[in-house]
Each structure stands twice: as structure tokens, then as C-alpha cells.
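If your schedule permits, I should be very grateful for your opinion on a structural question. Thank you for your consideration; the sequence and its C-alpha cells are set out here:

===
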Amino acid sequence: MVFRRLFQPQLTSLLRQYCDKKPPQEYFNREGDRGMSKTLTSETLPKDSKIFDAIGATEELLSHIGLAREYAQEAEHEYSDKLKRIQTIIIDLSTAISRSNDQAKKIISKNYTKELEDWILEYSKQLPPPEQYIIPGGGIPSASLHVARAVCRRTERVIVPLVKEGHLHNEALIYLNRLSDFLFIVSRMAAKLDKRTESIYIPKPDEKVQAQ
């Protein structure tokens, strides 16, 4: 009697559905435990190779821009949508790097760079001319953009060898160079929107400062 009650048709059906379910997707695998990983072209390379160094740099840049976008949204700054647009292009760039040994290389569109240039011109009309050296700060949204810009500069340096060796199209380098310019000007825009005063470094009369 107890056995029959326990295994009613409805319960049996539920048990069968549970058993038929596929196990949840694993959040880890052991393929990279020996310091090797695969690109999108299935090429196995050391994790400290130029390719994965560049991919890692783009991931850091993507994350820092994501953090800057969150701060922008909290402050209700209108440029947050532009940052999200940039994130999608950085993902395209990371994909292009991962496929860099493929004959059919993914090329970063020149339209992306033109888009950045248009935004730079748009914001530059709303800002005073930049001083020789602006000390990063000006509120959390502005400071987070300065950090993203520094990471962008490093990403640019990391992919230079890939461009020189013909693994990556030069337009990727041009895009990152223009992106650092955009992040600089939008950091100034963030300070203005938050009504924060920019801190300026004033060198000695006989001293030269490396341009930002």
C-alpha cells in the first residue's frame, strides 16, 4: 500500500523528468590548468603568448569601461550609452585578436573610429581648452574614465607587436588610439556634469611634462 502511494503516476512522471534533465553547465574546465589555452581558430597557445596577453588587455579594458558606465548611469550622465556601444566594439576587437592567425581576419571598421571622432568633436565644443596636464580625479565618474583611459593606452601598447607582425589589421590600433582620446575628453565632460573643478598640474618654468 505504501509503495503504491509513493509511486503514483504523477510522481513517477516528475521523477522521470528530473532524471532526464541534463546536468547544469560547468563554470570551469581543466583545459587551461597547464598554462595553455585555445584561440577561436582552435590553435593551442601558452597563456603568456602575445595573443592571450592582448586578449587579456581587452578584457580589462572592457571591464573598466563597464565600471565607468555604471558610475555614469548612477550620476545620470548621458554618455553611458556611448560607453556601452564601445564595449560591444571591444568585444569585436577581442574576437579579431583571437582569430588573428586566420587568413580571413576580422577587420575593425573605420566607421567605428569615425564615430569616436564625431563624439570627441561634439564634447570638445562644450569644454574649455585642456590644460597641459589634468590630474585624474574630478569625481568618481570622471576618475573611473581616467582609469579606463590608462588601461586603453596599455591595451594599445600590447597590440602594437601584433599589428607590426601582420597578425592584426592596423585599424584596430587606430581605434584604440582614438578611444583613449575619447575617454580623456569624456572624463572632462563627467567632471563638468558633476560640477567638479579639474585639478591642474603646473610644472616649473623650466620643466616639461609628458603630454597626456
Q: What stands out?
A: The radius of gyration is 24 Å. The chain is about 60% helix and 5% strand.
